[in-house]
Amino acid sequence: MTQNQINQSAWAEKWPAPAKLNLMLRITGQRSDGYHLLQTVFQFIELCDWITFHPVDDGRVSLQKPIPGVPEADDLIIRAAKLLKAETGCEQGVRIEVEKNLPMGGGLGGGSSDAATTLVVLNALWGLQLSMEKLMELGLTLGADVPVFVYGYSSWAEGVGEKLERIDIPEQWFVVIKPNCHVDTKEVFLSKDLTRNSKSIRIADFIAGQHQNDCLGVVRERYQSVKDALVDLSEFSEARLTGTGACVFAQFDSEEAAVSAYRSLQKKWQVYLVKGVNESPLFSKLKSGNIS
Ligand SMILES: C[C@@](CO)(OP(=O)(O)O)[C@H](O)COP(=O)(O)OP(=O)(O)OC[C@H]1O[C@@H](n2ccc(N)nc2=O)[C@H](O)[C@@H]1O
Ligand SMILES: Nc1ncnc2c1ncn2[C@@H]1O[C@H](COP(=O)(O)OP(=O)(O)O)[C@@H](O)[C@H]1O
Predict the structure, then answer these.
(1) Whose CA is closest to 187, among 148, 138, 230, 221?
(2) Which residues are recorded as binding ATP (predicted)?
(3) Known catalytic membership, residue 75
(4) 209 pLDDT exceeds 60?
(5) Nearest Cα to 179, choosing from 231, 124, 256, 141?
(6) Are strands 248-252 and 240-241 parallel, antiparallel or unpaired?
(7) Residue 1 annotated as part of some ligand binding site
(8) Taking 80 as the threshold, does the pLDDT of residue 203 lie above it?
(9) Would you state the pLDDT for residue 10?
(10) In terms of DSSP H, where are the helices of the chain?
(11) Signed CA dihedral, 15, 3, 141, 37: sign only
C-alpha cells in the first residue's frame, strides 16, 4: 500500500482523543517561570472525543463546528494544526470535525488530547514525517499534558509533565464523577495554600499505594461540589482527584463492583464508568490502521 492510498482511506475516519487520569500528583517545587514541578502518573481511560479530518483545497485550517464556549482561534485543535503547518511549511488545508464527549475543565485532559490527536494524525495524513519527539516538543508549547497523549503509553511523569517514563499498571475499572463546576488550573497553581514542597517519591512508592494529589486540599476547600463528590464516592472506594479537578474518581478491582457504584451514584451525579488502559486508544487504532 502506498502512503497516498493510506492517506485516502484514513481521511474519512474518526480518530480517538482519549481522556487521562492522574493516579497521583505531587508538587515537588517551582521553576523560575512560575510553572510547578510535578511527579504524576498518567493512565488513559476508554472515554474519548472523536476527531475526523476532511481535506480542503484552499490551504485553510478550520473547524466544522466550533466547540461551544471556545473561540475557534483558541481551540487547541486549530492551534495544533496551524503549528504543524508553521513548523513544516505544509500548504495543505483541513476541515476538522469534533465529537466532544469529554467534559471541559475536568482534569481529564480533553483539550490536550484533542491537540495531540491532531498533531499525530495530521503528521501522518499530510506525510510530514516529524518524529514523535518533535511532536511532543511542539505539543508542550500548547499545554503541559499534550506530550503524554503524543507518547501514547501510561507514564510516570516529572518536570511539568514532559519527562516521561513508560509504566505498566493494572488496567482496572474506574468510576469518575464530574462535579457541576469548572476548576481553573491556573487559579489552583496560584493559591498560597497549595503544597509545593512534597518529597519526591519513587515508582515503587506509588505502586505500594502512595496516591496523594497535592491539589486536593485547595480544590476541595474552594469547590463545594468537589467536596460533596469525594464524600459520596468514598463510600465505595478510595476517592481521588484527577489533575487539578474538577473530576474525582475511584478504582475498582472488578467490573461488578464498579457497575454497582456507578448505578448508585448516577442518581445524583454526572458519572462515567470506564476502563483504564495503558496504551492510548489512538495508538491502538494507528497500529491496526497501519499508518504509525
Ligand atoms: C497539572 C495538570 C495535571 O495533569 O492538571 P490538569 O489540567 O490535567 O487538571 C496539568 O499538567 C496541567 O496542564 P494544562 O492544563 O495543559 O496546563 P497549562 O495550560 O500548561 O497551564 C495552565 C496554567 O497552570 C499553571 N501551571 C500548569 C502546569 C504546571 N506544571 N505548573 C503550573 O504552574 C500555569 O500558571 C499555567 O499558566
Ligand atoms: N479542543 C478543546 N477541547 C476542550 N477544551 C479546549 C479545547 N481547546 C481549548 N480548550 C480550552 O481548554 C480549557 C481546559 O480544557 P480541558 O483540557 O478539557 O480541561 P483540563 O485541562 O482540566 O483537563 C477549556 O476550558 C477551554 O477553554
Answers:
(1) 221
(2) 103-113
(3) no
(4) yes
(5) 231
(6) antiparallel
(7) no
(8) yes
(9) 80
(10) 3-11, 76-88, 110-125, 132-140, 146-151, 185-190, 203-207, 216-222, 224-233, 255-265, 281-289
(11) positive
Q: How confident is the model at residue 4, as a pLDDT? A: 47
* From 85, 145, 178, 214, active-site residue: 145
Q: Which of 52, 63, 72, 76 to mutate to test the pocket of ligand 2 (most atoms within 8 A of CB)?
A: 76
Domains and CATH numbers, the chain: 3-167 (3.30.230.10), 173-277 (3.30.70.890)
Q: Which residues contact 126 (CB under 8 A, 6 or more apart)?
A: 84, 88, 90, 92
Q: Over the stretch 84-136, which tens digit does the pLDDT of each residue have? A: 999 999 999 999 999 999 999 899 999 999 999 999 999 999 999 999 999 99
- Rounded CA separation 60/46 (Å): 32
Grid cell 483541513 in the structure block, residue: 94
CA 127 – CA 86 distance, rounded (Å) = 15
Residue 210 buriedness (CB in 10 A; 0-12 / 13-18 / 19+): middle
User: CA 199 to CA 29: how far, in whole Å?
Assistant: 9
C-alpha cell belonging to residue 79: 492551534
ipTM of the assembly? 0.95
What is the 110 CA–ligand 2 centroid distance (Å)? 6
Q: In a mutational test of the pocket of ligand 2, which residue from 62, 63, 104 has the highest number of ligand atoms less than 8 Å from its CB?
A: 104
pLDDT of residue 2: 45
pLDDT, mean over the chain? 95
In degrees to the nearest 10, what's the CA dihedral of 168, 170, 174, 178? Answer: -20
Element (H, E) at 166: strand 163-166
Is 199 among the residues known to form the active site?
A: no
